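protien #1 (seq + structre)
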Amino acid sequence: MSLSKFKKYLEKKQFRTSTIRQYTRIVNLYTSGKLNIENTSYGWRHIVYYALKNYYEFKRDKALKEFIDSIPKYETPPKYEKPPLTVREWQALFNHARGKTEPYRAVILTMLYSGLRIGDIGRIRRDKLIEAESTGQIYIELKRGKWKNYPYEAIREFLNPLIGFDSEWEYIWQLFGKTENTYYFQIYNRLREWAEEVGIDQARINPHLLRKTFATMLLMKTQNIEAVRQLLCHANIQTTQRYVSKLPQEYIDNLFKQIDEMRMGN
C-alpha cells in the first residue's frame, strides 16, 4: 500500500507536517525491513510505537500488530523521573533569563512562568499575539489540530516585545530559523547554557523539566490539581498526576520550606 495514502490519512487526522514526515519515514523503514529498535533510546522507541500504531489503525495487519506489541512501551519516560527544579533554582534561572536578549528571553521566560510546552509557544501566531492585546486571551495551537485559549496577562510581559521584534514572522518558531526543529534545538541549547551559568547541572535541564517544575510549584501552592491540568492543557487528569506522583518526600518537604522562607522575605 502506498505511503502517500498513509500520509493523507495522517493529514486528515491533522498531524503536524514534521510529525507526518517522521511517521512516514519510520513506516518506510518498517515496510522495507530496515527498522531497528534494539539498543535504542526510550524516546526513539516511543516515536516508533506511535508511528506504527497509527499505521496499524490505517492498515490492519496481524504481523504489524505483533511487532508493535513487542516494542517496550510501558517504561516511565526519563523526563518524568527527574525531580523538578527547587524554588531557588527556578528563581535563579528566571532572574538570569530576564537579563538576556530576545527572542530566547521571551520563550524561556514563558516556559518558566506558564508551564506551556516549547512546541505550544513556538506555534503562537503573530496575529493572535496582537489580537490578545485587546481580548486578554492568547490562542494556543496544541497537538493534532487542537487549540486552547490561555490567559494572556500571565505571559504578556514576556511575549509582547516579540510583536515589534521582527515583522516577517507568522509563528514564533520562525524567529529562530527555517524549521521547527531548528527552533527546538536552539532553545534547548540556550536553556542548558543559561542553567550552567547559574549553577544548575546541564544533564538535568530540559524544556520539559520547566513544565514539570511549574506544575509542581502551582500544585503545592493551590492544592488544586484540576486548575493545574487546565493551565497545562492536559486532556486528562491522569497525565497531570504523573507529574507529581513520583516526587520524593524530601523534595516536597524542602519545597514547602523554601516557599515559606520566600513568604517571610528571607
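ok now protien #2
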Amino acid sequence: MSTAAHARWRSVLHVHARPGRIDELRALFETEPIFMAALEVGCRGTELLVGAEELVVLAEWDEPSDYHAWVESPVRARWGPAIDALSDRRHGDIYHVVSVPSPQIDDR
C-alpha cells in the first residue's frame, strides 16, 4: 500500500490514435479488462486521460520492477495487436513520484 513514507512510482503511457480512431481506442481501454489485469500483477491504480487524438494511461506502482513485469507480461501482450491496429505510435516510461509542498489556495 502506498503511504507517504513509501516510495511511489507512476507510469505514463501515451497512445496516439490513428486518424478517426480515437473513439474505438478509448472503447478498447474502457471495455477490455486491461486495467484489471494490471492490478493483478502489482499495479496499485490506473487513470485514463482522453484527448482529441491521444490517450494517456497513468498507473501507480510500488516498484519499477512491478511496472517492468507488466510490460513484459504475456497477459498485457495479448492486447498489443488491437492497440496497434488503432494507434500509430505509443510511448511509455516510469517516473518516481516526489511530493512537493504547494501553497494552499484560498477559495473565498
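The CA atoms of residues 5 and 27 lie 37 Å apart.
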